[in-house]
TrEMBL record:
<feature type="compositionally biased region" description="Low complexity">
    <location>
        <begin position="150"/>
        <end position="170"/>
    </location>
</feature>
<dbReference type="GO" id="GO:0006203">
    <property type="term" value="P:dGTP catabolic process"/>
</dbReference>
<dbReference type="InterPro" id="IPR050135">
    <property type="entry name" value="dGTPase-like"/>
</dbReference>
<dbReference type="GO" id="GO:0008832">
    <property type="term" value="F:dGTPase activity"/>
</dbReference>
<dbReference type="Pfam" id="PF01966">
    <property type="entry name" value="HD"/>
</dbReference>
<feature type="domain" description="HD/PDEase">
    <location>
        <begin position="383"/>
        <end position="533"/>
    </location>
</feature>
<feature type="region of interest" description="Disordered">
    <location>
        <begin position="102"/>
        <end position="183"/>
    </location>
</feature>
<dbReference type="GO" id="GO:0005634">
    <property type="term" value="C:nucleus"/>
</dbReference>
<keyword id="KW-0378">Hydrolase</keyword>
<dbReference type="InterPro" id="IPR006674">
    <property type="entry name" value="HD_domain"/>
</dbReference>
<dbReference type="GO" id="GO:0004114">
    <property type="term" value="F:3',5'-cyclic-nucleotide phosphodiesterase activity"/>
</dbReference>
<dbReference type="InterPro" id="IPR003607">
    <property type="entry name" value="HD/PDEase_dom"/>
</dbReference>
<protein>
    <submittedName>
        <fullName>HD superfamily phosphohydrolase protein</fullName>
        <ecNumber>3.1.4.17</ecNumber>
    </submittedName>
</protein>
Length: 800
């Protein structure tokens, strides 16, 4: 059996260190291999033991609101002892495994009682031979053959000496010894079942008290530091080890508990992480499978159960390798990155070049003065985050997304063509919103494009972003060798996204990956992109946690993405989290972006802007980048206030100021617009019919004294991102059984979905409070006519 790390899952099987390292694309691979061989590190198991260690951290729920980690002194001592063992190049011994097992047993409520079936002393109540050591050092049972359970020579042999398939090939069907062995297996299965029920009951009591443990895995960066290679190789090595440990935490448990011979059994069952094993095998009570197929002995089962029941979650730790060098080694070495604290993604890093040339650029710094949600901040007090925060998040998330897709192909995103693409993706993510005007989409929708027909040319922030990006990047090309002229086209295409999605079959994986990367920031096919992943999470924070607004964790979706034939695809098991993205978008549009107070404030604000535009010429400044640089939320309002103070008799400016003050300061003023009523439609034919007949002129005819200029009809189309279409019809998935074939999910995968994927919310507002009652009467009469029995709209509604 020769299993290696593959592109889709960095899982480790029995292979040499050389084969393992070959997947990481190291510059000085041969030197590293020679150095490890001198340390007697020859297999993957040896290597992982050499560069890692684990502890269990005791944690207690202090109250109902938060859990505080409490690392006991015994755990600290254990970590120190465990680390010193590995530093000396010695594998896990029985004493250490015994100590860890005792800790876990105590967490499960066993209290370390030697009378209970535990792994503490190598003896169990299941009738195992006394000579059969359960601490993983030696197997001296009836068929153990004296194999080392934690050494490579013991791989493929179960704890009781039975072969990998659970049957001894040398035993005949009628052999009494085989019958005795079968009887013994049945007894152990029954003992497993009894022990699990007891342990589960005791563990439930501990959970009520808020007692649990963390499974902490540590990458020993000080060991990586001593390898004779470059810093870049060391960083790559640490990143890859991290991924291996993250995906294969069950392997780490086996190695550090002295049970590596069980790993091939888990591999054959396609179980590589502790949570999956706990859910499918332990909680599913598949004890016959545990014994007969996996060949796990009772004592090993006890150890595993104590571990899986106690552990709440895993954590992986690794100190930054570059902070571990001696000061003399770093005398001329500058720090390469800067870290930003972000409320969504926690700590995000950008290199110094990106900070200096992109983030510190005046056009990017301008985003600090543009609110992400426009006038939503006057309705939701927490909606104060800016385009600056969002752009940093998209820059970080897009680079993370691309790096993950590279790792799925087992490709390094830090060298060659992919490294160039990684930088372009990150720059595009950072710069995708540089073209936004004041108050973000409010400026675009209600000021620049208000009441424009579908056939009219419309200004959009994306085109403005492309213009600014081209200006910024052109000034950087001649400064250093980081970017060249071809990068401008790549970055602009990344911001726009692909217009035509053609499958790329039978090409080099790198070409397929690069083609798919144009969907990372702006996915015109299905809307699943880094931009949406960030703003759906960020905008939902304006409400309390677990409040009325939906929350989203995009990390799971990204982690299950892959590239097939030039398309980003997702594991079909994640179809419901993918659907949640569209659901959350719909909810935010309905509850926040098109909130009736938000919309009326947007209308008032932009009416005020249009009144003053003849004086300040803001719409013309869009053609001048220097003038656009000064166009922000605060500057546009300051201009109006300053002008109004100097020209108190300028009617347009005073009216503009009154509208703006009604939004910012006094919503109850006589200048504020008043909400009248609304209707909601979801049937496409009804929406189209109403759109054709409803306008301000027609409604004003129903009330004497009401002018079309006194009212506003506000049309809000709410959908899941793809108009009236089901967005899942545009999403490619893959199955775990075949990760090389992309498909559109059938209906049986999808569950319950809405009948219509788009609805229309039509609201009526009145600009003049003095005639608001007339507007309401006119609206009611209009609806009575529209929905009368003689109306075509009524007939269509009844038919439906």
């Amino acid at each position: 059996m020769n299993m290696q790390c593959n592109k889709t899952n960095p899982t480790c099987e029995i292979s040499s260190v050389k084969d393992f390292l070959r997947n990481i694309c190291l510059d000085q691979e041969d030197k590293i291999v020679q150095n490890l061989e001198l340390r007697n590190v020859k297999t993957v198991y040896d290597f992982l033991r050499h560069v890692s260690y684990l502890t269990v951290t005791s944690c207690t729920g202090m109250n109902n609101d938060e859990n505080v980690d409490i690392t006991s002194q015994s755990n600290v001592k254990f970590a120190s002892a465990h680390e010193s063992i590995f530093q000396n190049g010695v594998s896990v011994n029985g004493k250490l495994t015994q100590q860890l097992a005792q800790q876990l047993a105590q967490h499960n409520g066993d209290g370390g009682n030697p009378g209970e079936a535990q792994l503490c002393n190598g003896h169990t109540s299941a009738g195992r031979e006394k000579g059969d050591r359960c601490n993983g050092v030696q197997r001296n049972g009836p068929q153990g053959g004296g194999k080392l359970a934690n050494g490579v020579s013991g791989i493929g042999v179960s704890s009781n000496g039975v072969s990998s398939n659970g049957m001894d090939g040398s035993a005949g069907r009628d052999d009494p010894a085989a019958h005795s062995e079968s009887t013994q297996a049945c007894k152990e299965i029954a003992a497993m079942r009894d022990y699990y029920e007891q342990a589960r009951e005791k563990r439930s009591g501990a959970e009520k008290k808020g007692e649990y443990v963390y499974f902490d895995m540590y990458i020993k960066s000080e060991v990586i530091k001593t390898l004779p290679t470059t810093d870049r190789d060391k960083e790559r090595l640490i990143n890859y080890i991290y991924k291996v440990m993250d995906v294969n935490d069950l392997l780490m448990m086996c190695i550090h508990f002295g049970l590596p011979h069980l790993w091939p059994k888990f591999e054959q069952s396609n179980i590589r992480n502790v949570e999956l094993f706990k859910r499918i095998i332990i909680e599913g009570r598949k004890f016959e499978r545990v014994k007969n197929e996996m060949g796990i002995s009772f004592s090993e089962f006890v150890q595993i159960v104590n571990f899986t029941l106690s552990v709440k979650k895993k954590r992986i730790f690794c100190n930054n390798i570059f902070s571990q060098f001696d000061p003399c080694d770093c005398k001329n070495k500058k720090k390469h990155t800067k870290t930003i604290c972000d409320k969504i993604h926690q700590f995000i890093e950008f290199d110094n070049w990106t900070f200096k040339n992109i983030i510190d650029n005046p056009f990017f710094q301008r985003l600090r003065n543009l609110s992400q949600l426009g006038v939503c901040q006057f309705v939701y007090p927490g909606a104060t985050h800016t385009r600056f925060e969002h752009s940093l998040g998209v820059g970080y998330l897009s680079a993370k997304y691309f790096a993950h897709l590279c790792n799925r192909y087992n490709l390094s995103p830090y060298s060659g063509e992919l490294n160039k693409m990684l930088r372009c993706v990150q720059i595009a993510g950072l710069c995708h919103d540089l073209g936004h005007g004041p108050f973000s989409h409010t400026f675009e929708s209600f000021f620049m494009n208000y009441k424009k027909e579908e056939t009219d040319h419309k200004w959009n922030h994306a085109s403005m972003s492309l213009k600014i990006v081209e200006h910024v990047i052109e000034n950087l090309i001649d400064q250093d060798d980081v970017l060249d002229s071809t990068d401008i086209k790549i970055i602009k295409k990344l911001i726009k996204g692909r217009e035509h999605h053609k499958s790329v079959c039978g090409v080099d994986p790198v070409d397929s990956l690069i083609e798919a990367s144009y969907d990372i920031i702006c996915n015109n096919r299905n809307g699943l992109d880094a931009d949406k992943f960030d703003y759906l999470q960020r905008d939902a924070t304006i409400a309390p946690p677990n409040g009325t607004l939906p929350s989203l964790n995009c990390n799971r979706i990204i982690s299950q993405s892959s590239v097939i034939n030039g398309h980003i695809t997702y594991n079909v098991k994640e179809i419901h989290p993918v659907w949640t993205v569209y659901m959350n978008r719909f909810s935010l549009f309905k509850q926040v972006y098109t909130h009736r107070k938000v919309r009326v404030m947007e209308l008032m604000l932009c009416d005020g802007f249009r009144l003053a535009d003849d004086i300040f010429k803001w719409s013309e400044s869009l053609h001048d980048l220097d003038a656009f640089l000064d166009l922000t939320d605060s500057s546009i309002i300051y201009d109006i206030k300053k002008r109004a103070n100097k020209h108190k008799y300028d009617e347009k400016v005073q009216k503009s100021l009154n509208l703006i003050n009604s939004v910012i300061h006094d919503r109850n003023s006589n200048h504020a617009y008043k909400y009248i009523s609304e209707i909601n439609l979801s049937e496409p034919q009804l929406i189209k019919y109403l759109k054709d007949i409803a306008n301000e002129e027609r409604i004003a005819r129903y009330a004497h004294g009401l002018s079309p200029d006194d009212i506003i009809i506000d049309w809000n189309y709410l959908n899941y991102g793809m108009g009236a279409n089901d967005p899942l019809d545009s999403v490619y998935f893959y199955s775990s059984d075949n990760e090389d074939e992309a498909f559109i999910a059938h209906k049986e995968y999808r569950g319950t979905h809405p009948r219509y994927f788009e609805e229309c919310n039509v609201r009526l507002y009145c600009k003049n409070k003095m005639v608001a009652h007339l507007a309401k009467d006119a609206h009611n009469k209009f609806l009575s006519d529209v929905f009368s029995e003689s109306s075509p709209l009524y007939k269509k509604k009844i038919v439906k």
